[in-house]
Amino acid sequence: MLQPEAVSYPGLGKIYPGDYYENIPYPEYISAAQKLPEGVPVFDIRSFGALPGDLLNTEPIRRACEACRDAGGGVVLVDGGCYRSGTVQLYSNTTLFIASGSMLVASRNADDLIRRIEGTQDFGDESSGGAFILAVGAENICITGGGVIHGQGEWYVHEPRQKPALEPFPVTMLPTREQAAEINTIPGSIRTFYRERIRYAEDKYGEGKPVLRRPSAMVWLLRCTQVRVENIVLRDSMCWTLHPEASDHILIRNVVIDDNRHVANTDGIDISGCSHAEVDHCFISCADDGLCIKNPVYTRRPSEHLHLHDCTVVTVMNAFKIGTGTRHDIRDVLLENCDFIMPDIYPGSVSGISIESCDGSHVENITVRNIRMDGVQCPLYILLNRRNQAGAPYSEDPDTPYWGGSVSHVRVSDVEATGAELPAILTGYADVTKAGNPVRKAISDIAVENYRVTYRDNQEILHIPAVFDEFLTDYPESNAHGDVDAYGLWIRHADHVRLENIQITPRSANIREMIRLYDVNP
Fold it and tell me: What is the full DSSP assignment across 309-378?
């Protein structure tokens, strides 16, 4: 007999104006007329006892998925309403088909979603862990149908300190580097403006709140091959929304991600340690990085041959980001023909294009072209540092992972950005070893061409330091550096940089130069 779910945190779940982007053009991405695949067995979850409504259908859906597996594959069909469930595990040769007008809804009970799954122990943070939709070591997986996967994200995070901001802020101000210990709470800074509106599962402000348990992903595809996610809506994730990891030959196409834009860590698509992946024609509205490429220590393989194109991203964080978990190499990435916008809540997206290596990854052969932005604070951010989250041991040899990896052969072209608030920062770093030997880690072979930016014409408060911090071990974020002495491009510790057709219109109140170069070699 089906049982009702037990809600972990019953006081949560509220939604406020501005949490969701209300103008997603669903018909441009999602077809309601998709037919079931022909010639394969269909395992309708209703035949295994699933019922739409408020009861929990974890066991009937599990039986349907296992029956599909035991038959050698087929279609697991979700049709006829909204079905609540705990974790749904998919197996090889399975199509999860959620029909248009139907929905698979995650339980609001953390115990139904956070559990040890064989084969996942070495990946990610086991203290949270788990997923709503999960496939491990599977081949030929498809998630499709035109329906909705719903994560109920608001039920896994605390209430925000401030409601969404529906009007622009009149002044742009950054925290200084001297304020690094309090960087997220400096009154009047754009970091504080958006951070206080984010809903965290942790006690971010020392207010005595408990740490809430939640899954680490809504859809997690781990060590899979031949994966297709197409014609599906992913809504209200509780953490990362769609996470292919250590997987090969992935197609993500015609997907709408419609998250609460204030639920912390709700990245749109996180591609970690994958090869031959394509993201085509998706609409992503989320609270954290929209299109994100990572490669943390536990993948133990490169991320390579990735093509992301023809997408629209609405996010309060970074629209496209390489980073932050960057221990293994990332190479051969093409991002093109995308729109990054933030039209209705404030402040704007933290960055549009963010390319980072901070844990030892060699990031190389990255091409970004034909990108349009509006309402993005920092259009371009490229950084190399030695955060060393993977904990590589100290060495006097600057070529070891302790000292970080590299960022090289990056070309950014044909960028048109309006409503910007911050300059682009492109930087490596310089340091000394314990023995006093100099270490210079430069970003190299960087081209920025046909780059046109217009600022939002508000006021600014600047705190330009006499000496610029090297940002050696910090979490990389464009607004964490403090102010610099350029309004357009600020470039430091870089070799072989080419700038062509740079056009930047500053604020009326501007007092800075357009471009400043420090330790930049031709």
Answer: ES-EEEESSEEEEEEEEESS-EEEEEEEEEEEE--SSBS-EEEEEEEEE-SS-EEEEEEEEEEEEESEEE
Q: Is 477 helix (H, G, I), strand (E, B) or coil?
A: coil
| Predicted local distance difference test score (pLDDT) of residue 21 | 98
Beta bridge partners of 52: none
Domain count of the fold of the chain? 1
Token couple for 77: 């069909």
Handedness of CA 257, 416, 445, 439 (dihedral sign): negative
DSSP H helices in 420-459? none
Owning domain of residue 313: 161-197+289-522
Has residue 296 been placed in a domain?
Answer: yes
Residue 108 lies inside a defined structural domain of this protein: no
pLDDT, position 506: 98
Would 154 be classed as within a structural domain?
Answer: no
Q: How many Å apart are CA 38 and CA 42, to the nearest integer?
A: 9
For the question of whether the overall pTM of this predicted structure is more than 0.90, the answer is yes
**28 lies in some domain:** no
The secondary structure element, H or E, covering residue 150 is strand 148-150
Give SS3 for 297. Answer: helix
Angular region, 446: left φ>0, alpha ψ -120 to 50, beta rest = beta
Residues in the chain with pLDDT < 70? 116-128
pLDDT digits (tens, 9 = 90+) for 357-385: 999 999 999 999 999 999 999 999 999 99
Give the model confidence (pLDDT) of 253-276 as tens digits: 999 999 999 999 999 999 999 999
Query: Residue 63: how many CA atoms within 13 Å on its side-chain side?
Result: 10
